[in-house]
Design brief:
The protein has helices at residues 3-7, 11-65, 69-93, 95-112, 119-137, 146-180, 184-200, 202-205, 211-216, 229-239, 246-265, 270-286, 300-325, 327-345, 361-379; strands at residues 348-349, 352-353. It has 386 residues and is an all-alpha fold. It is found in: Cell envelope. Pfam families: Peptidase_M75 (PF09375).
């Protein structure tokens, strides 16, 4: 309806405008009503989907209390299947709640599918997931300016980095306490966990001058005295002795504590966090996939998975902007992250990653190719800042 043309007509034709105006308004009202109905229908559909997931989760919790492992696994699989059916719509409309739900659902599913899952861990994750689903059920669509969403993305990622660094400090101390106690077996077990937290935030750690080499350098990578994780790794897996390792354990605790202090004061921007995500994937695809990173312990799959998780944290942080700017890219990234995660899961046995030496050349090549594909997709997120 174009009133501007009608206005230039004579008074004779003015009377004729009445009908189309009323008709037009009626059509607009009808259209608005249909839109509201559609919106309400989708909202009700979301609530129904969330309630269905909550039902499966509560059944899982009941089975957990009854110590029925078979049912816990069954409900865990059902919960994951339901989420995969609903997640695309949720990702688009409620990206922040989507990432919060995945934060607990994915590790819950990974845990219950292990041969021997940790009941306490499953219980805590189920409680956190229940809270996330409740928030999702009450969700309201909101609109923000791109700059505001980017600011939120940076804050979200900064929170993630702070959490990972805090966990790094604690897990490194557990590792070093075992080293100082000359407990080789406990030190080996604690080593992998500490590496997870470092590898997730490696690009941030590398930005602080010589801290990264002190913490993470491999043999022959630095001039002067060699310190850090890999120095003790060699003592554990190659030398078979923790003799004289106390000073390296003490130094590693100090360096990780210094890293946490610097991280707390760091200022990040969207370009930095996306660049860091790409850096994680590129390094994983080019150098870490060769098995050089963990040359004595051969837990390279732990490092690769952690790099992917760190990069995925960036993807989750910028997802609201991707949904606004490039929904197809958001979908592609979700698909690629799922592919590499599934591929890594294939190299697990009894819930633990295999010794990297046991992978065949075609398997290593497949990992490298998928990491490269994911890195290329992640690189396209640069367009959201243009």
């Amino acid at each position: 309806m174009k009133l501007s043309k009608s206005i230039i007509h004579t008074a004779l034709t003015l009377s004729l405008i009445t009908v189309p105006v009323i008709s037009g308004c009626s059509n607009e009202a009808a259209s608005s009503g249909e839109h509201k109905k559609a919106s309400s229908s989708k909202k009700n559909e979301l609530k129904s989907q969330v309630k269905e997931m909550q039902g499966s989760l509560h059944q899982l919790q009941d089975s957990l209390q009854e110590k029925n492992e078979e049912q816990v696994k069954e409900y865990g699989k059902r919960l994951n299947k339901q989420w995969l059916s609903y997640e695309n719509n949720i990702r688009e409309k409620y990206p922040l709640l989507y990432t919060d739900t995945e934060k607990y659902l994915l590790p819950l599913y990974a845990e219950v599918t292990k041969d021997n899952y940790n009941s306490s861990k499953v219980q805590q994750l189920s409680v956190d997931l229940d809270r996330s689903l409740t928030n999702l059920e009450k969700a309201k669509e909101t609109t923000q300016k791109t700059t505001e969403v980017l600011d939120t993305a940076v804050k979200k990622y900064k929170t993630y980095v702070d959490e990972q660094t805090e966990a790094l400090v604690k897990s490194t101390k557990t590792f070093n306490d075992a080293v100082r106690a000359n407990d080789t077996q406990k030190a080996k077990e604690a080593y992998a966990e500490a590496r997870v937290y470092y590898e997730r935030i490696e690009p941030i750690a590398e930005s602080f001058g010589d801290l990264d080499p002190k913490i993470d350098a491999r043999e022959n990578d630095v001039e002067g005295e060699w310190t850090g994780f890999h120095r003790i790794e060699k003592a554990l897996w190659k030398d078979g002795s923790l003799k004289d390792m106390k000073k390296y354990a003490d130094q590693l605790d100090q360096d990780v504590a210094e890293l946490q202090k610097k991280v707390q004061g760091v200022k990040l921007n969207p370009t930095q966090i996306v660049a860091g995500s790409m850096e994680l994937l590129n390094e994983a695809a080019i150098s870490k996939v060769t098995g050089e990173e963990e040359r004595y312990s051969h837990i390279d799959l732990v490092d690769l998975a952690s790099n992917v998780e760190g990069s995925q944290a960036v993807y989750h942080a910028v997802l609201p902007v991707l949904n606004e700017k490039n929904k197809d890219l958001a979908q592609d990234l979700d698909t690629e992250f799922n592919k590499i995660t599934a591929l890594l899961e294939e190299h697990k046995k009894s819930g633990a990653y295999l010794d990297y030496k046991k992978l065949t050349k075609p398997q290593v090549r497949e990992l490298s190719q998928q990491l490269n594909t994911l890195s290329e997709s992640m690189a396209q997120t640069a367009e959201i800042f243009q």
